[in-house]
Amino acid sequence: MAVCIAVIAKENYPLYIRSSPTENELKFHYMVHTSLDVVDEKISAMGKALVDQRELYLGLLYPTEDYKVYGYVTNSKVKFVMVVDSSNTALRDNEIRSMFRKLHNSYTDVMCNPFYNPGDRIQSSRAFDNMVTSMMIQVC
Amino acid sequence: MEAAAAAAAAAAAAGGGCGSGQPPLLLSEGEQQCYSELFARCAGAAGGGPGSGPPEAARVAPGTATAAAGPVADLFRASQLPSETLHQITELCGAKRVGYFGATQFYIALKLIAAAQSGLPVRIESIKCELPLPRFMMSKNDGEIRFGNPAELHGTKVQIPYLTTEKNSFKRMDDEDKQQETQSPTMSPLASPPSSPPHYQRVPLSHGYSKLRSSAEQMHPAPYEARQPLVQPEGSSSGGPGTKPLRHQASLIRSFSVERELQDNSSYPDEPWRITEEQREYYVNQFRSLQPDPSSFISGSVAKNFFTKSKLSIPELSYIWELSDADCDGALTLPEFCAAFHLIVARKNGYPLPEGLPPTLQPEYLQAAFPKPKWDCQLFDSYSESLPANQQPRDLNRMEKTSVKDMADLPVLTQDVTSDDKQALKSTINEALSKDVSEDPATSKDSNSLKARPRSRSYSSTSIEEAMKRGEDPPTPPPRPQKTHSRASSLDLNKVFQPSVPATKSGLLPPPPALPPRPCPSQSEQVSEAELLPQLSRAPSQAAESSPAKKDVPYSQPPSKPIRRKFRPENQATENQEPSTAASGPASAATMKPHPTVQKQSSKQKKAIQTAIRKNKEANAVLARLNSELQQQLKEVHQERIALENQLEQLRPVTVL
């Protein structure tokens, strides 16, 4: 169960960001922003030759005291960033992967909607919202 | 009964005026009924509550009941007015002053709510005028209890305003009997005399409110006064398709309004998400206007352009798309398109969008409930091509018959709708059934075959393009043109093969002399053709060596083969220009007769290829001309450059110093 989920566009601006309301959202926004550097580093480390073979799931980007941040990049350089509570040790890597896969599928469904212009914020898709809500920690 | 007592009390209280200085409250019949029901509910609920009712009743003057604050607050909140407005209302109606919701206060409050919902300011004066009934969004149970309608509620929020507005419109008609008929509101107004439609039009004109828009949707929208006479219960089916081709020309907005009319005629009053026959036909026609093949789909961008014409907001359209594109592939199949269209129509008529796709709009349901879209569309073809009025109701009846059958199977509408009109519709359908059944398979097969035949014909092509393609498709030219053609023109064949015999016999010599007499408008053409023809002459000569009739060319490139074939008529043309070969023409005609049908088959192809070659040559000529012009320009530019360089050199020794 994630604490914060963000979808970042290729140009590194957020398309969708949702945090669990308990905490100060600004903190999560900042964490996601700093994680973008790590994402870029991981992408570039692969090199151009390996672009096709590059795996979409980036894994743990960096851990902080309270949280862990995971990353995922699509082939169109859209990044998904997920912040998870560190105390939630039951979360395994596979689960994170499956969450990212679900995110990716929902994202492609949003893309398929002709009324969605790529590069817009993802505001109108209820299916996407529902999916993200299901992944977030159920608070209040 | 409590309700009657409350009503009486209300009337008395209203007539006498409450002691708080409020004006006498005039309630119409409909309002009285509605309010008394609501009051009874609230009071009843209060009575059921922990003793809040009776003690209050005891406190108040005997004979009046009070509604407890709880249910009343819920009711007011359900009216969806902002809380400040509700506070104002409670203050105004006097409940705050007296501390409870007596009948008077309650009725005044309800009237104020109605006023507020109509957009009027919350004042005592506003309740003096006639107002529509207040609208409340309630849960399903409340709705059922309130209106006593065992209707199946698909979108319950949708349901209540529908019925409320029905009541409203009935009130407008001053037809008190209609209040009882909550079951078939759409049928009865239509059955009423034609004076009623103009009656209804006053409603949307006087209140420009969305709620009333939805009532107007069931009645006829103002712009379509002309269509009013058309839209009668029985006449609708025949009038509808007749006006359909006209509608196709109309803008989409008009079409949406028309949809409302169609929806009225045969839609069940409690099924806003069910697609009726006319709607279905209309949607399918629109689909076919976008995409001729009804079994394939509309791409996302095409659909987007189409739906944006509906002038709904983009988020709403996006949501509708999300609902209707079940497989999320960015394209709409026919059932998905119908669902989307229906949702748009519903939204335009004021219905809020559902949270999820209603079952009646699911693609599987839509495909199952209605005949195959291909069949449908072929039928539509048959009547769009020939619009005889007699055919249309017949076809429509057929459709209605099938849909009614399907709907009878579905467990959905068990209730109610015991409207007489519906019975009548069924009976007419059943009558038509017997005669239509026999025609059904016949016409469908006919239309099927009709559709199939032209398609098959097109595949056995006699068109030039097809022949061209066949001739040029194989990268290495086949030795013999083994294609079958339906047409054969031996004359052409003769013309084609005439010169081949003498040309091949004479070998290399004749072709070069054939060049000059060729009429060339420009030198470049001559040049290009001169280049072409010597090549070609070599080719046919070699071919002639191998086999006169066959086209074996060891080294020839693919384009040269058709060109080669073209060459013969070219050759023949050039030779015809020469008086020498003119005589040989008819002479060699006789020699051509023994040639078998193989040449007949190739002649058609040759003709096609000849024209293609002609075109190519023209293009070549044009390009060559262009080339020469550009080269001239290049020369000029070169000269300029040289001149500039000279100048530069002249200037340089000066600057070096």
Automatic annotation (TrEMBL), chain A:
GO terms for biological process: endoplasmic reticulum to Golgi vesicle-mediated transport. The keyword Cytoplasm applies. InterPro entries: Longin-like_dom_sf, Sedlin, TRAPPC2L. Keywords: Cytoplasm, Endoplasmic reticulum, ER-Golgi transport, Golgi apparatus, Transport. Its main location: cytoplasm. GO terms for cellular component: endoplasmic reticulum; Golgi apparatus; perinuclear region of cytoplasm. It is found in: Cytoplasm, Perinuclear region; Endoplasmic reticulum; Golgi apparatus. It comes from the Eukaryota. Gene3D superfamilies: 3.30.450.70. Belongs to the TRAPP small subunits family. Sedlin subfamily. This is Trafficking protein particle complex subunit 2-like protein. It comes from Rhinopithecus roxellana (Golden snub-nosed monkey).
